[in-house]
Design goal:
Layout (H helix, E strand, L loop, with lengths): L5 E9 L7 E6 L20 E4 L9 H5 L5 E3 L2 E2 L9 H5 L5 E4 L1 E2 L2 H9 L2 H7 L2 E5 L7 H13 L3 E6 L11 H6 L1 H9 L1 H7 L3 E5 L5 H8 L4 H15 L5 E8 L7 H13 L4 E6 L5 H6 L13 H13 L3 E3 L13
Parallel strand pairs: 2-8, 8-9, 9-10, 10-11, 11-12, 12-13
Antiparallel strand pairs: 1-2, 1-7, 3-6, 4-5
Bound molecules: iron/sulfur cluster (SF4) (2 copies).
Length: 333
């Protein structure tokens, strides 16, 4: 049986996820667990049940429709007996119960995106794959990218940077040895990433221990991937690479980290970065999913943003906020 990735949202008319007006396709499944995550519904690969307390009218319909008895009280289900049939969602009259994630074929997603093609063309926009981590599904991405590219649509991916290439050799060997390059470019992950126009690459914390503490993984493979993609940009191969730093109060916005990220980008030969100011709009989602909330802070103060911007510019980089990027050439020579 064919299985498809779970898509938990397709948002249209987006202006912060690449050039122009775009549609963003959000996949479930992420290898990181950032404490400040604004999309915790993206973490797990499988579809999930959520309950929005404020919408619940406590009618008890979900208790009656649940076939396994997993629903014990309005919005209180036992995960060990829930078989994820989502009948409770279908029967909930108020929309309090929500299913996060639908398996959708590439053809189905393409058909939805196709309705927006005229807008993309008019605005210089396109489609951005996000998540979660879209690179977890390279075959699926290829099956979507091929028709989108044939339609002349600009395609981008937002990534946490944690993916694993095969046939990887040091960059100079990869570029100099035709056989090594053929092996590298024949893998499906590169077929997906190499077919993109733009990769929006998040760099969060440069300190290894702090990255493990706040994001749940080592950051070395992420940095290796960034350097590799930057090197390929310099070699005229692969997609445009655009670095981004989520500015999270008390976690990523300190001077040492901002400077370290900016230096790392500069050392990779790229000359700009987008700062993504933290907002706390995702906090309530932890309650919807009945997960302990890991982090909540006020939206980033304007003053902190300006300080970070100055630090980035002091390192010789152009600095942007989401939506004001020009996506001009980034290469430092
Ligand atoms: S069916 Fe919906 S509105 Fe009614 S009790 Fe259950 S969650 Fe609340
Ligand atoms: S998803 Fe199905 S089994 Fe789980 S609580 Fe809802 S109705 Fe019950």
């Amino acid at each position: 049986m064919t299985t498809y990735p779970q898509v938990f949202a397709i948002q249209h008319f987006c202006v912060h996820d690449g050039p122009g007006i775009r549609s963003v396709v959000f996949f479930k499944g992420c290898p990181l667990r950032c404490s400040w995550c604004q999309n915790p519904e993206s973490w797990r690969l499988e579809a999930e049940l959520g309950h929005k307390r404020r919408r619940c009218i406590e009618c008890g319909t979900c208790l009656k429709t649940c076939p396994t008895g997993a629903m014990k009280a309005p919005g209180q289900w036992a995960p060990e007996t829930c078989n994820q049939c989502f009948r409770c969602v279908a029967s909930c009259p108020s929309g309090a119960l929500t299913r996060f994630g639908e398996p959708r074929t590439a053809a189905d997603v393409h058909a939805e995106l196709a309705k927006e093609f005229a807008l993309y063309r008019q605005s210089g926009g396109g489609v951005t794959f996000s998540g979660g981590e879209a690179s977890l599904f390279p075959e699926y991405l290829v099956s979507l990218l091929d028709p989108l590219r044939a339609d002349g649509i600009h395609v981008a991916m937002e990534t946490c940077g944690l993916f694993r290439f095969r046939h990887l050799r040091p960059l100079d060997e990869l570029l100099a040895d035709g056989d090594a390059w053929c092996a590298f470019e024949s893998q499906v992950l590169w077929k997906a990433i190499g077919a993109l126009d733009l990769v929006l690459f998040d760099l969060k914390l440069m300190d290894r221990a702090r990255h493990r503490e706040h994001c749940g993984t080592d950051n070395l493979p992420i940095h290796d991937n960034f350097r590799l993609l930057a090197g390929l940009v310099h070699a005229g191969r692969g997609p445009q690479l655009w670095p981004r730093l989520p500015l999270v109060p008390g976690i990523t916005d300190d001077e040492d980290n901002v400077r370290a990220v900016a230096r790392f980008v500069r050392q990779a030969g790229l000359g700009a970065i987008t700062l993504l100011p933290y907002h706390n709009l995702g906090v309530e989602k932890f309650d919807w999913l009945r997960r302990p909330e890991a982090f909540s802070a006020a939206t980033l103060a304007e003053e902190r943003l300006l300080q970070a911007r100055q630090l980035v510019e002091d390192e010789g980089l152009r600095c942007y906020q989401p939506g004001d990027e020009d996506y001009g050439p980034l290469i430092l020579r």
